[in-house]
Amino acid sequence: MARIPVTMVVNGEQVGPVELDEYTSMLDFLQEYLNLTGTKLGCGIGVCRACSVIVEGADGSLESVRSCINNVGRFDGKKVTTVEGLAEHNAEGEIVALSPIQQAFLRNFSFQCGWCTAGFVNAATVLLDRLRREPVAADRVEDTIDEALGEHICRCTGYVRYFRAVREVIESTPGLVKEAE
Amino acid sequence: MEGFRQDRRNFIKLCTVAGITLFAAPSLWQLGRARQAGSSTGKLNWRGDGPDPAFRSDGIAKVTGQKIFGRDYRARDMSDWPQQQHYALALRCNRVERRFTGIDWTQVPADSQPYARITAQSLVDRKLKLPPFYGEAMLLPEGQSPYYYGHVVAMLLFDDFEKYAIAKQALQFNERIIRYGEETPPVERDPYASWRIIRVEGKGGPTGEDLYSPLQDGLFFPQYRDRKAEWPTVANQAGDVSERGIYYAGQIRNQVERESAAGNWHLVRGQYETQIIDPMMMEPEAANGWLDSARSTLHLVLTSQSPQDFQEMAAHMVAESDFAADIKNIVVHSAVVGGGFGGKDHSIFPYYGLVAALFGTAPVRLANNRFEQFQAGLKRHPFRMQNTLAVDRKSGKFQALVAEMQVDGGGRQNFSPAIAMVGASAIQGVYYLPRNDIISVANQSMNVDSGSMRGFGTLQTMTAMEMMVNQAAEELGMDPIELRLRNAFETGWRNTQGAVPMVGVRYREMLERARQHPIWQERAERKKIFESKNPGYLFGTGYAIATKDYGTGAAAPSSAVQFDPEGRLSLAVEFMEMGTGIGTSQSLLLESVLGRAAEHCEVGVVDAWRGLQQFQTESPYTMSQEHQDQMSTNPLWTPVIGMASAASMSAYFQSHVTLQAAQILFQQGLLPAARRLWQRDNIDPAQLQWQDGELQLEGLPLLSLARLAAEAHRNGDVTGVMVHGFNRWEWTEAEFDLGGERQTWVIDGLALRRGGSADRVRAEEYQVVKRKAVRYPRTALNNAMVTYYAPTAALVEVAVNPGTGEVTIHGLQNYMDCGRPIVRQLVEGQIEGGVAMGIGHALYEFLPPLGEGAGNGSWNLNRYQVPLAKHVPVWNQQHEMLPPETDKDPHKGIAEVVMIPIVAALAEAIYQATGKRFNETPITPEKLRRALNPQVL
């Protein structure tokens, strides 16, 4: 069993270098080593997407990555954002402003128990980032949401309010939607 | 996080059980929240400015990933706990047919050895036994065969995460770690319980005296032979309860055959089956426990829906063990529950966490991954029913229902007896039945045990009833909604148990609405149009209606409401937050009585209620009327002190006591202050109104809540009210001397606060007001079984791909009578979630029994299909909530009911599309494909 050194930026803070068993999942690393428990275990096998985190690519684009089936090595040298890193905090660490997706989920009463929320927040945030670069045709908004969030599992809400909230943000944010083709 | 040191009085003494003092720590989340400034004002204020709240009161914590769930907490998050976190791993049997002969410890990786190995012998050595509710053999002893799939044989404790993770990877699917010997016969036991509901209406019809019913005559029970129920056979109309029952049951069964043979009654007769379902709550169960030897205190952080019951049973378990000498106190730290659906109600899991903590040398965390949660978590009971519904051919009126249900409870009893009973009592759905003979038996099996999962037996039985009604309509050539209208139950009529429901029923109205809907009216035309536009696809429309009882027959909610001198309201309620938004809805309830929503609502409170100084004696379900009469003369006695949380219970039961407390607080606290400030001795409360947090009386200056509160505090008036209610299908009323007069309130316990400083509700600040008289509901109402109902209906149209068997929901219209909704968005969210769960039950979710099932440890979401967004009509479902009839309508319990009608509605829509009738769930694409293409394998 090999040990590997890992360095990354998590929610804007430098982490590592730290030596870990190479099979340590990113989810376990976040929870057991960094004490960031906002990223949730749902299935542990990459199906339910509750554990999704955001990874920033070299070109600044964002990607949603499942932290339960990807080991820490996959994130070495990367910038990672978890659900704890999306809101704005003041110097005292208090929340002062939420991201547009977080606000929309609140406004729409999108979640109930809240266990799958981090995954939805992150995947929706990544979707908005993509639409900034590649706007979607107005008549394809719902299909686009279905594709981006369709694999995420929620057991409480029936998805309706999550999807509605994302549509609301897409349609109200300038530049994300283009005319229907 | 703020400290939990005892010297700071942050632990609150609950009571002493078996010599061990139980403490409840303030809910973990609420302490975390105290640090979160900025959330009570401006954009981050949940209440907002409109009539509806801006968002859920727990919304910010959830959407920003704060530590709020029991599973989130590690040792380092707990003040005064050692930093080092240990980890526990449970080894579970994935087979049952052979003797367990020991553990091959060489399978544990050499560099990842546990420091403790807990086996059945370890439990015997330390005299640790499961609470009786859960049965025996917490860990399976060597030499015995597993009682059921997933039986735990040992627990291993590791002193760091890496060792634990490596060992778990090596052992979880390792076939050699548990050794098995020779084959043994399966473990068999008598059924857990049997019920029989026989009723025959009398000459007076639905509202008159019954010839026989459980409410009137009582219940009787079978004997067991060869593990099967054998009912008495002696029939005598003038005999005792069983002889009379058997007489009338025989009459019903004979009449059904006779009238059918004569061509008068049409019979729908068939076998109806449901599957094993996993609640699949998103947060798998976890426990973190620490035995603080220096302070003789055992701490536990849980994910339980029923922490109060755990705490009491855990105290007995410890007190009867060798650890009794080491443990003087048990502290339960409860948190927000990441979904429960009944799967975390009286689960056995926390007791394994407790044992791990007892043997640990530091805080120990036991946390199921999803494979383990499938293998060991409570399931929904599968029902196998043999049903006969008799319908008069001329009038279309239902004449009789004969049903025999076998309910598989799995390896441990848990709530199986209650589920078998509630399922049996619910099968009548929204219909009136003049005659019924319903048998329900809860059986032991080697399956993973089933518990109080959403539906509580009613989903299974009512779905069967709706399937029968749809079939009857088809066979009689009647419109299915018309047939339902002819048989709809009316307010004031007797149910299958002979009881009269307490809540007005609006089935007829709900049926008429669906009948007018275009999905129903135009269903033939829509089918024609769809199928011509989409060649090869089959289109069908289905309808079903259900009514869910809610309540337990021994509901015992508590609530406390108080204000500080600045007029800030705080509230404590007994129910846990499981996702339903109880903190939000209960806070909002105060507005109508006290002018503002609560600024602070503490949920899942267990400690404060000792301010009421109540005590209980026997089980409320079995106590005699004499015992109740005798005990109730003691003003501090109550049938039940506390209750478990259930999503469907909070709206009605918790709201009732919250409103009672608020009304007493208004009358005893704010009204006297208003009289003084306005200098008016006579104020008619009916003339008073709240407007934006200010009290109005025509012609007088407005009084803000802050001003009234300050005056009440200054004058030593009542500033807080704590109440306890008891409901056995009726509420208890009691009389109290308040403000110099005798008053009746719908509660059985009361305590008041005068002055006071705490923002949180603290028992120490409250003084009991002893009741002067009390009227508890008669114990005979225990035979009534259920009398509260909330109906819901679903109208659904589907498109079936006959090549693949895939069903797409084309349109969906729900109808719901939830009484007066407290927060509309929360109710709608419950409806949408219930619909999704119902779709899963109807079409996708399935666990096979026994060796192929969840207990073998190989199940996860790659095989267990829960509904995804594509399976649910995310963009095209509509709900109609029946407008409340009056502003006095109750806040009805819902949550689980909405998942019920969609199941039978889908089965009927599939039948209308394909001509294939299914009496069992789920109707998976594979099953449908095979049915439609019998020539293809």
From TrEMBL, chain A:
Pfam families: Fer2 (PF00111), Fer2_2 (PF01799). InterPro entries: 2Fe-2S-bd, 2Fe-2S-bd_dom_sf, 2Fe-2S_ferredoxin-like_sf, 2Fe-2S_ferredoxin-type, Aldehyde_Oxdr_Iron-Sulfur, Beta-grasp_dom_sf. PROSITE patterns: 2FE2S_FER_2. Residues 4-86 form the 2Fe-2S ferredoxin-type domain. Gene3D superfamilies: 3.10.20.30, [2Fe-2S]-binding domain (1.10.150.120). This is (2Fe-2S)-binding protein. It comes from Microbulbifer taiwanensis.
TrEMBL record, chain B:
SUPFAM superfamilies: CO dehydrogenase molybdoprotein N-domain-like, Molybdenum cofactor-binding domain. PROSITE patterns: TAT. Residues 514-873 form the Aldehyde oxidase/xanthine dehydrogenase second molybdopterin binding domain. InterPro entries: Ald_Oxase/Xan_DH_a/b_sf, Ald_Oxase/xanthine_DH-like, AldOxase/xan_DH_MoCoBD1, AldOxase/xan_DH_MoCoBD2, AldOxase/xan_DH_Mopterin-bd_sf, TAT_signal. Residues 263-488 form the Aldehyde oxidase/xanthine dehydrogenase first molybdopterin binding domain. It holds the Pfam family MoCoBD_1. This is Xanthine dehydrogenase family protein molybdopterin-binding subunit.
